[in-house]
Specification:
The complex is a heterodimer of chains A (about 120) and B (about 120). Helix content of chain A is about 75%, strand content about 0%. With about 120 residues, chain A is an all-alpha fold. Chain A has one domain: Orthogonal Bundle (c-terminal domain of poly(a) binding protein). Chain A is rod-shaped. Chain B has a domain at about 1-65 and about 100-105. In chain B, the strands form three sheets. In chain B, strands 2-1-5-6 form a four-stranded antiparallel beta sheet, with no helix packed on it. Chain B starts with a strand and ends in a 20-residue tail after the last strand. Classes of the chains: A mainly alpha (about 120), B mainly beta (about 120). The interface of A and B includes residues 43, 50, 87, 90 and 104 of A.
Chain lengths: ~120, ~120
């Protein structure tokens, strides 16, 4: 069998990483060593931030619901408490969507909560 | 016009013809029908607003399975520096791709036919 020199294997391996660093800044997009570090770090952040994303969205939704509620003269905390009391199970994603895009529907829900 | 329904602890706001990804339902095949009965909220031109406490009775959503799919691959990469620890795992979530076919908003059951919807015209 013919011989495969180590350089070939190394080049393929390096290429794979450098390709993933496409669009990075400076040396990170060209050299293996810098690219490898950057790609690893990016993957670590991606793993962490998939969890952070969930928190950030929840807090964004809460802000939107709060803004929507206050248009109808009621606080967020009172509103959510009221929802529970009359056994409505909307989640915050849906409520925020309604508050922002379907003000009429949201108004009805707030009215129902207020009526208790 | 839209409807909010719940499936496997997730809530979706949909209109007719929407395509959405839901957690995989194993037994379904392509072109099968699936019904959702946990309807939380209805905003319809013909029957008006209806808020369920927590669910609206006697209405359902009919959807067709387009395909059983797997979501885009996610790379789970963990590393602890100075401890020579690296883990790389690929993950693809199992999903079912469905298309909302019809919203059956007129109550069929006797108990729920209230005066609020006089016209029995199916909105779709």
């Amino acid at each position: 069998m013919s011989r495969v020199k180590a350089g070939t294997i190394t080049r393929t391996r390096h290429k794979k990483v450098v390709r993933k660093a496409k669009g990075y800044y400076g040396r990170r997009k060209n050299t293996f060593k810098a690219a490898n570090q950057a790609v690893e770090k990016a993957a670590q952040y991606a793993y962490r931030d998939r969890k952070v994303k969930k928190r950030q969205f929840r807090s964004l939704w809460i802000q939107r619901i709060n803004a929507g509620c206050r248009l109808h003269g009621i606080k967020y905390s009172i509103f959510i408490n009221g929802l529970k009391k009359i056994n409505l199970t909307f989640n915050r994603k849906v409520l925020a969507d309604l508050a922002a895009r379907e003000p009429d529907s949201f108004k009805e829900i707030v009215a129902k909560v207020k009526a208790g | 016009m839209f409807v909010v329904f719940e499936f496997k602890d997730k809530q979706y706001k949909v209109s007719e013809g929407d395509i959405l990804k839901i957690p995989r339902v194993e037994k379904l095949k392509k072109d099968d029908d699936i019904n959702f009965e946990k309807i939380l909220f209805i905003n319809s031109d013909s029957t008006g607003l209806r808020i369920g406490t927590p669910y609206v009775n006697g209405v359902s959503i009919k959807a067709k399975v387009i395909e059983q799919i797997r979501d885009k691959k996610i790379i789970v990469f963990k590393k602890k520096r100075r401890h020579n620890y690296r883990r790389k795992i690929g993950h693809r979530q199992d999903l079912t791709l469905i298309k909302i076919k019809s919203l059956n908003l007129s109550s069929n059951k006797k108990t729920t036919t209230k005066s609020e919807n006089k016209d029995i015209v199916d909105p779709i």
